[in-house]
Amino acid sequence: MNVDTLIVLFAGLLGLLVGSFSNVLIWRLPRGENIAFPPSHCPKCDHPLKPTDLVPVFSWLALGGRCRYCRAPINPRYPVVELLTGVAYAVIAATFPLSTYEAGTLGLMVLFTILLVGSAIDLDTMTLPDELTLPGTLLGVLFGLAGAGLYAQEGQLGLPNVAQAVEGALMGAGVIVLISVYGSWVLRRFRERQWPEAPIGYQQISLGLLAGAWLGPWWGLGVALLSAAVNVAAKKAVRIPELLTLGGFLVSLALSSAGTGPGLLDMLRGGLMAAGAVSLVCGVYWWIYWRRNKQAEDDGTDDEQSDPVAMGFGDVKLAAVIGAFLGWERLLLAVVVAIFAGAVLGLVQLALKQENRVKFGPYLALGAVVALLWGGPLLDWYRGLLGM
């Protein structure tokens, strides 16, 4: 047995163990529980679990899918998550050998775990925890420190370098938030927001989109932060008409197509990256704000209202994670696959007269896996169609 085969087997075993920990994350993150303490216990009877109760897959089989102490059923998702992670880690190790991709192999395993945990939580709670997506985005950028040069290999996939990871994260957040702000505008029949967030929120994201198109992503972020500072000084949300920001962005693209201002692609890139950057700042702010005000919300004293949204903000941050790990090209491919998969499943459920209650996160995760495994050939095929 050669070294590469041993590494694949070891990766599979590592995946089983990580899958067991993933189940802890899936259960505890949405409930705001500590992921380390108390130690693993039965959620029904709270009895602490022994090491023999925690062997991935085999403990569930040996116990007949029931708790050893209270005989309550154990969700079959536990061994499924462990098996999926074990198989996925082995596939990643075989497809992207550690001897070639080094830290890139480990980074792709981390990405898969984030996608699987996020999808399971989204299916359960219709949410994507900030504790998973925001640190996940940072991890993607940090892995970029070890990924320089690998991403450029012809027909192969490695981690993007730091600059590419940052661009991918901002583009990822920007693409999804673009769908969100325009979709919300349509849902409101092009009326202005009734409850604009303060000091920073969707108004600043839309402003960053417009400013970034003309000034570039970092100046766009600066303009949006200046607007947030005005809100802080005024102690209220100073309204920025969406007819100016969202309408202005569309007009800007039209002008660019006619030869005025920066090129169309430069405008799109600048606007999307700026909107993505503001979105991540919003995500961090709202995360801190939520944690600070969680007790008030639990007591029912928080009566803050919001306007309808077309896309959950967790999806924005999950797209940032995917972009940070895979780069902006594969991120766009993941979004296309996600939209197509969502449309197909939606049509199937419509034909069966079932309501489609699956959020976009699992579709994004599926798209990311497709982009991870087959992104190179698919992108090469697309470039061939364009004659690039």
Summarize the structure.
This protein has 388 residues and is mostly helical.
Secondary-structure map with pairings?
Blueprint: H1 3-28, H2 58-62, H3 77-95, H4 98-101, H5 103-125, H6 130-143, H7 162-187, H8 202-215, H9 217-234, H10 242-257, H11 264-298, H12 313-326, H13 328-351, H14 360-386
Helix pairs in contact: 1-3, 1-5, 3-5, 5-6, 5-12, 5-14, 6-7, 6-12, 7-8, 7-11, 7-12, 7-13, 8-9, 8-10, 8-11, 9-11, 10-11, 11-12, 12-13, 12-14, 13-14
Protein name: Prepilin peptidase, type IV
Transmembrane segments: 6-27, 78-97, 103-121, 133-153, 165-187, 207-234, 246-265, 272-290, 331-351, 363-382
GO molecular function: aspartic-type endopeptidase activity
Description of the molecule:
Belongs to the peptidase A24 family. It is a multi-pass membrane protein. Keywords: Cell membrane, Membrane, Transmembrane, Transmembrane helix. It comes from Deinococcus radiodurans (strain ATCC 13939 / DSM 20539 / JCM 16871 / CCUG 27074 / LMG 4051 / NBRC 15346 / NCIMB 9279 / VKM B-1422 / R1). 68% of the residues lie in helices and 0% in strands. It contains 14 helices and no strands. With 388 residues, the chain is an all-alpha fold. The two termini are 43 Å apart. The longest helix has 35 residues, at 264-298. The protein has a domain at 1-95.
Separate helix tally: 14
Work out the helicity level: 55-70%
For the terminal residues, how far apart are their CA atoms?
43 Å
Shape verdict? globular
**Strand portion:** under 5%
Q: Based on DSSP secondary structure assignment, what is the total number of beta strands? A: 0
